[in-house]
Amino acid sequence: MCLTFPNVFLRMLLMSLPLSCSITVPAGTFTAKCHERHFWLSVKASFLGSAVQFNVEDSTGIHFLSSQRAAECGYTVVWNHHGDLVFRASYLACYVENRRDTEFRLQVWFVNRQSDGSVEAYPFKLHCSVTEPLSPREIVCEENYMEVSIQWYIPVEAEQFRMERVIFYRPGDAHPASQSVKEAEALGYHIVATDTRLLLRGAYSSPFFYMRKEQDIQMEAVDAIIVVQLEGASIPVEISMACTKNEAVVDGLHLLWSFPLAVSSLVHDLFRNGRIRMEVGGRMLSDCEMHESGYKATLKDLTMEIRIPSEANGAQIKSGVIKGQYVQSLSVELFYMHHWEDVIWLHTQHRSFRLLHTPYVPQTPTLINDTVSSTSMFSVTLGVFPADVSLQNITVGNDTMTWTKAQYQGLHLTQLLFTNGSHAYTLHVPFSHPLVTQKVISKHYRRHVLALTFDFFILPEEEHFSYSTDVVSDLKVPAVPARLEGRCTERGIVVLLHYGSEDVQWELYVGQRRIDWELVWLGGYKLKSEDDHLSVELPLYSPGMTYEDLSLKDLVAKVEVSALDVLTLKVQHSLVQRCTFPVRDLLACLPEGRMVVVADTTRSIPPVLPNSTTLLDSSCTPVATDSTRALFNFSLDSCGTTMTVEGNFLLYENQIRYMQTFLPKEDPLIHVDSPYRLTLQCRYPLNNTRTLTLHPLRNATIHRPSLPWKQT
Question: In the record, which residues are listed under signal peptide (predicted)?
């Protein structure tokens, strides 16, 4: 059932409106039970609005419970280890309908304020009864108050019965403090007598509470005597209580909490210890379950030590941020009850409801790098985080994105959920992703770097923290063999030696000759060294160049290059590069003892017709001509070629001539010699004519009428 209201003053409404509702609540939203002398009502975390409140109702009306009033009256509101809201009320709390201390009824209102300002109120009628009679003395240590009730047999309805005074006494005080009941209630105490019991309750740190140590354990206590007037007689009733205030500590992989077995202010003379009973996270633990789950309860020097495994079901990790550092505290919702007997009290039940917290400890999230370089995919897992931590953003490189945007960006981000409510995050990113940085670190390896920042927030405090890391993976680059490459240019041929990924020292050969600095200087080679290759440019008319075809149209040149492994002295790679070059003037001295000449005869004055030229032997005419050039191809022992010896060389010489049939009268330089004469020379070493030389005729000097032009 519920009531829904707009923004109004809730308390006044709850006192005046009828209790009715038509809103359907999801099953399991509210859970009510009777447990350990308390009403329990829990509300699922998912159902809670922006603000919540509990009110109680009795025959006098609806009562608002402030924090102070709740502690005085025996009410507690806490969060359990699931994040649900838990309302707990003592059977002996204010506004509870008590029927002879055996049957108890309570009307509760849960008020839920939504984010839009509307208010919903849900009424609950709770009914509990005790299955076992209340013990002679029962002490309750709640989160926000202490309560003690003792058994007595004086009927409240007895004539001349009244509670007169309360006397508080503390160790070391010279005089006890005597207060009337009304004065004590004004100080925050709740004192009441039922049919069978006398009760004292107060919030922690109330006046006359004091701190004491038992077995080096800090405790808060109050010692009091209630003076009862009955039929003219004053009857003092001793009524004291004490609760531990120590927090838990981390002991290895356990949460350790201790309490004294016997509190001196509560035990009188002969003490006989009874058993303890323990619950964790609202679940009662049997001796067998405690043993199997790793829980330990050990008596040590009159101190009971309870160890709870940090991974146990019911242990909860609370997150926080201190100075930007992510921190964690281990907490356990613990209930324990201790029984004992002494001379005065035949049976005492001491109940404690404690939400234990360890101090906050800095924590660095664990990054598990499952990247396998051969898959070319980053694979990382970050965690493990408790349920109160959520991922807000992720930054890869310099790009910050939400979870949804990350999926669109090609990042595979998922959340891993574990049975204890904790979780982790996995991220898969291919090496080829644009946000992955790549760098060549050697011939054989390429480094991939994934720069990550995870931004988290903690609920419900909405604190923020970040975790940054660089994930590095070196990928072995597939072996790339060295290779030779040839290119044609306007001036010659370029040969490139690509090193590849092989760790080899190379030497280059042109034909049978190693390319060294002497050859580079003599041939006019141009060398250029880069990180991944070496280039050598060979001019067209340089040593190492061979020529396969010469015509009036073009020249086909060839270079043969080989790469030799210096360690093995074996040729590993070779290249034959051919290039075709346009021809204008050229003299080729071929190794088989022939001359091939392309000569432009039109550059003389006056111009000479190419098809009218001959060699020294006038029967040797061009093998081909065009409008400006003539092509001669003849052996060195023909066409009037002469041979002389000059030092260590054989000099072969011939001429291209043009004989006129008449002499122009207007030319004052006419003589009987031919007007056009181009001298051709080939020089061979005396002991080897198997060499080839190539010369550009355009560098020749042609005179009018003519002078010999020698080309060697």
Answer: 1-22
